[in-house]
Each structure stands twice: as C-alpha cells, then as structure tokens.
Design goal:
Number of helices: 2
Organism: Virgibacillus halodenitrificans (Bacillus halodenitrificans)
Strand order of the largest sheet: 1-2-4-3
Number of strands: 4
Largest sheet: 4 strands, mixed
CATH class: Alpha Beta
Order of helices and strands: EHEHEE
Strand content: 25-35%
Protein name: DUF2249 domain-containing protein
Shape: globular
InterPro entries: DUF2249, TusA-like_sf
CATH architecture: 2-Layer Sandwich
Pfam families: DUF2249
CATH superfamily: TusA-like domain
CATH topology: Translation Initiation Factor IF3
Radius of gyration: 11 Å
Number of domains: 1
Length: 71
Amino acid sequence: MIIDNRGLEPPQPMIRTLKALDGMNIGEHLSIINDRRPMFLYEELDERGYSHATEPLEDGSFKIIITKSGD
C-alpha cells in the first residue's frame, strides 16, 4: 500500500500513517510519500517496533518504507 501525504499540513500525514499501520500484519510493508522527512514519525515508529527506510525523491519529497516487525 502507498499513502501520498504530500500537500497535507501536520499532523495529518502522521495521523493517516499511524491509522494505516494499525491494520498491518507482521512482515507487511507500507510506503508513504511526504513533503519532508517525518522526524516525529520516526520516533513513534521506533517506539512501536517498526523498521523504516527513507529514500529522497527527485521532486524533493521523501518516500518512507515502513515494515511491521515481529515481537
């Protein structure tokens, strides 16, 4: 699944992302595209045990791939 959060004002990108993560199973991936690096989201993902990787895109936005890890 891909969620395009570009053009949204905070905290909407984070709210949309966390809502989508709630329905994920272990091993599933979610990709989001944000206008900027989601620094506060990274902290939340780390606390919840999700792994993530960030890729800068040519238009200046960022693609973040989030994976739900097992406990």
